[in-house]
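Lab notebook, design round three. We kept the backbone fixed and only want residue identities now. Task for the bench partner: fill in a sequence for the structure below.
Input structure tokens:
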């Protein structure tokens, strides 16, 4: 009895090769960055928020974020993302070139050191080691020692620490061991340059500008002085009374102009709704007729087919 050959026939091998060379296209996915339909094989889903974009757009977005972000967390490119997801390091490494991925990690580390009040760079240019700062209970600068070159410097001005040293900048340092209530109270009394977002806890540095802050990480809006939530305060009434009165950082005219713009947008939207609603009511019969007309046409065709089939059955 002849045994079956384990090898495939030539026709089976050719069909398998054609199937591998021409795979069946999967369902297309709409990319919100390039505003076009892309095959699922050319798209990628973010791990943190499950948003889907085409790989080419994500690569360009990541490269631009690395060059202009300064080491900040790369968030989801969709501004309407409900989960406000952030790209993980593994995703950034796979989407960016090797040199850009290394640049992002270096910028991310430098940014973390800069925004962390408990860390600082060694002032010696030949050293540039990361030093741990231990501010005093009063929040005043203290002596810091470099673990590499053992240089003792001021934690506030980074100058050489000597007996009787007085910091010229007198920058108040925020102790990470303080509770949230005490931190809010101390921050409302003095305008420290670095504070934490009351929602996600990330460190934020304010150089200049208004007191209405927007966290880039969690998109939370708050007051810089008292850390109060300003997400729903579109008219900025928080700065009309209380301890933060007239501390917005803008003139009264600019605040009024902002409120006028908001009111104008709301009034414009309401006017459009009022104008279009009667037109929609008047046009609703026409719309219903247009919708129902194809259905009536299909019914007529079905009746004609039945009428044609009845004589045939009778003759048979």
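Proposed sequence:
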């Amino acid at each position: 009895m002849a045994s079956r050959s384990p090898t495939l026939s030539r026709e089976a091998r050719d069909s398998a090769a054609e199937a591998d060379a021409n795979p069946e296209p999967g369902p297309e996915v709409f990319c919100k960055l390039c505003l076009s339909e892309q095959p699922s094989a050319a798209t990628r889903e973010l791990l943190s928020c499950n948003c889907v974009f085409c790989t080419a757009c994500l690569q360009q977005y990541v490269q631009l974020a690395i060059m202009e972000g300064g080491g900040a967390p790369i968030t989801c490119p969709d501004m309407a993302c409900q989960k406000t997801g952030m790209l993980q390091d593994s995703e950034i490494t796979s989407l960016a070139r090797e040199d850009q991925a290394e640049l992002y990690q270096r910028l991310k580390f430098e940014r973390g050191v800069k925004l962390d009040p408990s860390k600082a760079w060694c002032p010696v240019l030949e050293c540039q080691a990361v030093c741990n700062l231990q501010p005093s209970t009063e929040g005043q600068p203290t002596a810091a020692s470099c673990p590499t070159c053992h240089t003792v410097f001021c934690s506030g001005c980074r100058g050489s620490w000597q007996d009787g040293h007085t910091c010229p900048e007198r920058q108040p340092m925020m102790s990470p061991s303080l509770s949230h209530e005490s931190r809010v109270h101390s921050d409302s009394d003095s305008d420290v340059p670095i504070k934490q977002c009351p929602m996600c806890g990330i460190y934020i540095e304010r150089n200049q500008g208004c007191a209405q802050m927007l966290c880039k990480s969690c998109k939370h809006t708050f007051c810089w002085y008292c850390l109060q939530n300003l997400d729903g305060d579109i008219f900025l009434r928080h700065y009309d009374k209380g301890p933060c009165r007239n501390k917005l950082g803008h003139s009264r005219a600019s605040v009024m102009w902002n409120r006028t713009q908001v009111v104008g947008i709301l009034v414009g939207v309401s006017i459009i709704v009022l104008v279009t609603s009667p037109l929609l009511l008047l046009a609703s019969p026409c719309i219903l007729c247009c919708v129902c007309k194809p259905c009536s046409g299909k019914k007529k065709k079905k009746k004609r087919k039945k009428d044609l089939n009845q004589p045939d059955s009778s003759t048979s």
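Keep this in mind before ordering anything: The first helix runs from residue 10 to 21.
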